[in-house]
């Protein structure tokens, strides 16, 4: 192997420094492991800072009747029963302890009158359950985890992109990547690797996701032989900004509806009465997103093709206190004062329910030593995620992944690095510099986003999905010919060439899974199969690489034990 | 279609200069959108940091027409467009490339600050009023614009002795945490050099989160340091006791 490559060695390597990655790092450190954390951005900038609404945990501080059983049932119902029941159970049981822990590490939440952590209502949750601080819960969480981890002593490698997982036989042995700043290569040798890289939303045109969300972790795992599951379930958040064009897709927190915001169409009708008269605005995200989409398609949309979301009936001071960043966001970016008038909102690609298939207890994938947590992993949310269940997911399964990875590292020997893999990875990543001419990677990305937006959006049908597969193939061929200008030094055009490969892998997986599922369930809506199908309700789609091609099969949903069936049967 | 001219710094440690790019204007466009347009159509290797594009992550800091700002929150229609919009990297930090600077020093300062430590035997209950007081400091998104504009760092380069406004805000958030039991007075005085701040309030002016950095964080912390180390009566008592 080229001896000039910078090499670092750890027991546990964590890829991604959002909530899941940081929580995994803290747990692995607590287990005595040497821990490295690699992230594409600066520490503390991960997508977790965008989370606004809160952390779902049945603390029963506000609604005394709440308990883990109800949270479990809400999560399973929200996920249309495709969730891994064990993950949903662990999540509901452990979330309150994870929140208390966060508080003991210095996080500050809004309070009830008697000094407990305050909880707010959210879509699909039976009780007031979301622990929050105004509408910047994610920032509070990431800052707390970041400082905890830094002071416990992990090594952090900021602005570093991993492009390949290295393997020693069947097991994972580390990772290969490059420093974004200088373009130099770096090797991480590790006994266990945790993938906590988040989602894939940057493959769609209208999205709340940042440049980082290109499906890197899922692709790394897939290329290393791990399985991806539930890839057809992409969540479109019902409320993104729609106007002006520059802000299209930016998230409008569900907390607006949680605090009493009302949705209306251009005729002033409170249209949720027609889609979910019981839960109204606080129905699950899949239902509300389809409702807004349908209102617009049938000609009842707002001037800029959205719906009105109005919180101005609440006192202005209350709105500014509970939704401060929404107040500023609309005032500064859209010239709208939300204490005086309605916002214009529409669906935006937001979250990936699918991802790396993992064991519920340990978060280990099918590749020994490879773990995954948070949005990059599948299982907890099934066909649709409830708002607030993401931050709690990061804490519960971030911790479990860190624990699993540290325990695996204790038992595993030091892996060997294979120089052929390293050389292959370095050759691949440099290839775009070799071409004398070619188009810009930005054009290819633009066209991929347009194709996914129009062909694999909220509503799908066979014809569109087949066309999407064809488009992805054509774009892949174009990407193989893109050219990079400039040097290896902080070169976003070059960085995008690898991101594109990842986006092709995950969008193909999404499209193939969506083609296979002949029904509509949760976030997956087929115009040609508009109904729930009981047979499909018992199956998860799984994607794996076979002989260099993508192969899809289905596996039976794990059957729930009787005590949990009992909980599901109870009505509350 | 209406156009704007961006004058963006291009270069690295070895040198560089501003280059002009013409960008078509779109309603509601922010400076970051315009920079992205340049990246997509004219200069694919233009280096810029960004993440959320919604004013929540504090990545896209730069100096727009001479003023330190978040590019994602600066509307193009708020700037005079009859002349080029200049976009330069933050001056107080070492340049990496184009609009990207090396902000790693900030992370080193943060490590010096003792983390939250609950008072022994604490009961985990808090009053909303006490939480509200600290929220202001905790909403900092670490854009480092306050560090960029602070003359102690920008003009005098006192990074060894001085922590900068961002970290006074951080310490204020810890010191005023209702359940924290630690005093960080000595760290403020000796490691973060709070005495070097002469309250010109430049930091407060550029804060995109509108944190009253000087009035609510720095001045109360300065008072704490004075109480702890420069109280004449206490100094006398200490002298007598030989402490």
Quick structural overview:
By secondary structure, chain A is of the alpha/beta class. Chain A has helices at 19-30, 68-78, 85-104, 137-152, 216-223, 255-258, 272-275, 285-297, 316-322, 324-334, 389-411, 419-434, 441-455, 462-479, 492-516, 562-569; strands at residues 6-15, 35-38, 55-56, 119-120, 130-131, 155-157, 160-168, 171-179, 185-195, 228-229, 234-241, 262-264, 307-310, 343-352, 355-356, 370-372, 459-460, 525-526, 539-546, 549-556. In chain A, strands 1, 2, 6, 7, 8, 9 and 16 form a seven-stranded mixed β-sheet that branches. A four-stranded antiparallel β-sheet of chain A has the order 15-10-19-20. A four-stranded antiparallel β-sheet of chain A has the order 11-14-13-12, covered by helices on one side.
Which secondary structure elements does this structure contain, and how are they paired or packed?
The complex is a heterodimer of chains A (572) and B (243).
Chain A: E1 6-15, H1 19-30, E2 35-38, E3 55-56, H2 68-78, H3 85-104, E4 119-120, E5 130-131, H4 137-152, E6 155-157, E7 160-168, E8 171-179, E9 185-195, H5 216-223, E10 228-229, E11 234-241, H6 255-258, E12 262-264, H7 272-275, H8 285-297, E13 307-310, H9 316-322, H10 324-334, E14 343-352, E15 355-356, E16 370-372, H11 389-411, H12 419-434, H13 441-455, E17 459-460, H14 462-479, H15 492-516, E18 525-526, E19 539-546, E20 549-556, H16 562-569
Parallel strand pairs in A: 1-2, 1-9, 2-6, 9-16, 17-18
Antiparallel strand pairs in A: 3-5, 4-5, 7-8, 8-9, 10-15, 10-19, 11-14, 12-13, 13-14, 19-20
Chain B: E1 3-12, E2 15-24, H1 31-41, E3 61-64, E4 67-70, E5 85-88, E6 95-97, E7 100-101, H2 104-112, H3 128-138, H4 145-149, H5 151-154, H6 165-175, H7 185-191, H8 202-206, H9 213-229, H10 232-241
Parallel strand pairs in B: 1-5
Antiparallel strand pairs in B: 1-2, 3-4, 3-5, 6-7
